Amino acid sequence: MELVQQVSKCSCRTAIWTRMVPIALLMIIVLSTPVLGEGERGFYVICGDPVDTVPVGTALHEMFFTIRSTSEIADSVDVIIEGLLPLGWSANYCQESTGICYSMDARLPLPAGSDEGFRVDFYPRLDFPGTGSIILEFRSVLEPQMRGYCTITCSTLPSLPDVGLTVDCPPEVQTVTGPFGLSEFYVPIQSTGNDPDNLVVKLDKSEIPADWFAKFCLVSSGECFLDEATLPFSPGTDDEIRVDIDTGNDPGWADVRIHFYSESVPAFSRRCFFRVYDRGPETAGVPNVFNKELPLRITPNPMQVHAELSFYLETSGLVRADIFTPDGRKIRSLGGNVEPTGWSHLNWDGCDHMGRRAPAGVYLIKLETPTAISSAKILMAR
Predict the structure, then answer these.
(1) Where are the domains of the chain?
(2) How distant, in Å, are the alpha carbons of 148, 225, 257, 322 from that of 260?
(3) Which of 190, 227, 254, 263 has the fewest CB atoms inside 10 Å of its own CB, making it the most exposed?
(4) CATH topology assigned to domain 296-380
(5) What pTM does this model have?
């Protein structure tokens, strides 16, 4: 059985992550990219068997993968390693042409049109069964958006759990233009195995600007997480992960990656890629929602039960605050009274206009006073 996963700079439409033990071949393909005046750049990562089972007491087990350059010019590849190893295990990867082994990230030369063979060495614990994995990411130095992945697992368990998940990555590019700078992506997930499993979800925010904000939420429960979570999945369960990206209206772009893998068999893994562009707030017909003349403080933020909005009025007058969901739906209005000059406060109890508790997530607060319009974002945490 062969599973071919296609990864490129421009599309990552769908992926199937399913129960396949044993599996014959996993190939991750990074498409070549023409660069004006410099020829094509690209490489393949041929991962080989992602799961091997060996007897307890095995001192060393070797697994193999190949990086194949399809580039017309020389490049280098940054190899990023993440170990998911039980206590007492260790692992490294070795470049076969040089015999040099690495247990940490490394930058390796990749000559044009070359094949570079690599070996992964697992050193299992001799006296106790377990399962260990390493996750390898490969990034072109000349084209950092060009990447490939291998997840390689060695097990000394008598048998592996019957687990499986289908992760359907959505289109990756979204342009954000407007006064709020919020973008949402939904990732459907289905449990297809016969045994219960835990899904480990990790959000990679290393390449977003410092002023941007990202998190992910489990849609069924409304729980949100900033970086990492382990979520239980029963056989036959369907759910969605929502990825929220808040640009703060700072123009720019970012790549956001979210990684899913089985806690039982980490070789069953999938990454989704999202690229977000923010052109900044449009000026026509849009108020100055980030008016620096009207300080607006929200405490606490993130909130759980209630939050206080504090602001300073230079002139007394009518004040109102409207609370919106990221898609622009108004759920609550606060105030509507004349407030005196100086510091004023409004309180939100976390409920909508019907008195129902608002689900966890990002909300937008638009404050209108006699002299200015301002806005802010608040995170509802549960």
Answers:
(1) 22-159, 160-283, 296-380
(2) 15, 14, 10, 36
(3) 227
(4) Immunoglobulin-like (2.60.40)
(5) 0.56
Q: Are 259 and 17 in contact (CB under 8 A)?
A: no
Q: What is the 3-state secondary structure (H, E, C) of 292-348?
A: CCCCEEEECCCECCCEEEEEEECCCEEEEEEEECCCCCEEEEEEEEEECCEEEEEEE
| CA-closest candidate to residue 163, choices 191, 131, 205, 186 | 191
d(CA 21, CA 194): 14
Cβ-contact 228, 199 below 8 angstroms: no
What's the CA gap between 130 and 121, in Å, rounded?
Answer: 16
Residue whose C-alpha is closest to residue 28's, from 57, 1, 65: 65
Task: Give 215-245 pLDDT, tens digit per residue.
Answer: 999 999 888 898 999 999 888 888 999 998 8
pLDDT in tens, 306-353: 888 888 787 888 888 888 887 667 888 888 888 888 888 888 988 888
Provide the H-helix boundaries in the chain: none
Residue 123 near residue 54 (C-beta atoms within 8 A): no
**Is residue 30 a contact partner of residue 131, using CB atoms and an 8 Å limit?**
no
CA atoms within 13 A on the CB side of 351: 5
User: What amino acid is encoded at 18 in this protein?
Assistant: T
Q: Are 347 and 377 in contact (CB under 8 A)?
A: no
Fold type of domain 160-283: Immunoglobulin-like (2.60.40)
